[in-house]
Amino acid sequence: MMNRKLMYVLILASLATVLVVNYYSPLESLWMLLLIPAIATVVLFPTWKATITVGLSGFFLMVITEFAFHQEQMPYQHAADLMITGAVEWVVFTVISSFRIKVARLITELEHLALTDPLTKIYNRRYLDLYMEKAIPLSERREDPMTLIMFDIDHFKTINDTYGHNAGDMVLKKVTRVIEGIIRDSDVFVRTGGEEFIIVLPNAPLEQGIKFAERIRKTVEGTRFVYKGKRILVTISLGITEYIKGQDLNQFIEKADQGLYRAKETGRNRVVVI
């Protein structure tokens, strides 16, 4: 936050300096100093919309200010030099902005890759850790309920051994898509590894979570999974628990994991509450 404030101060200070310098100097080339606040702005807002807006604003500021400062002594040559300076400045600014935008997009893509599972495209365990660092204190402060569902795909190893790993990948992706069609926008859906998943339901009491978990179980059970013309029967087992004040993330997950273990031990394709 402090860095952004410093950038705003830099933009305003450098813009004021440019205006003062060009008020006292007849050199058109000094308007190139506008690149400083312009580039600083694009560093904060690395988009083409910001680039075009800042570029045009800087050009018009230069022309209007120069006319206001030196209108009584503005020969054609001076105006021509001013246009050349503006054009050169625009080219330099566009090239630098283009590089900054590409870097920003690359950083965004890398961050997205670091926080998502490459197969299913949903969040991974690293994202869950980062999310829960904020979600748990917020839940405690507001005294909002929060429910966690842990589930895995029943007999997934058998599916891989019988139909092949490509079939297993298909099942993982289709289960993910089916559940994505059910969860709320506020819910957090994570693949923690292998065939194991976690769903965090913020602001949802245990009773609501149980109904939701049962809906997921029935939806997966009723979905057709077909690989190379062969029907694959897919079910899931789920453990569910509600957050208790004072728990850390590992304790929260461990309770849901205990429910998942019991669901598997007692016949699978069921929801167990802990």
From TrEMBL:
Enumerate the transmembrane spans.
Answer: 7-24, 30-45, 52-70, 82-101
Biological process (GO), any one = negative regulation of bacterial-type flagellum-dependent cell motility
Give GO cellular component annotations, separated by semicolons: plasma membrane
Give the matching InterPro entries. Diguanylate_Cyclase, GGDEF_dom, Nucleotide_cyclase, Rev_trsase/Diguanyl_cyclase
**Which residues does the UniProt record annotate as the domain GGDEF?**
144-274
GO MF terms on file? diguanylate cyclase activity
> Keywords, A to Z?
Membrane, Transmembrane, Transmembrane helix
Instruction: Give the matching Pfam families.
Output: GGDEF
Taxonomic superkingdom: Bacteria
Q: Which PANTHER family match?
A: DIGUANYLATE CYCLASE DGCM-RELATED, REGULATORY COMPONENTS OF SENSORY TRANSDUCTION SYSTEM
Identification of the protein by name:
GGDEF domain-containing protein
Question: Which source organism?
Answer: Effusibacillus dendaii
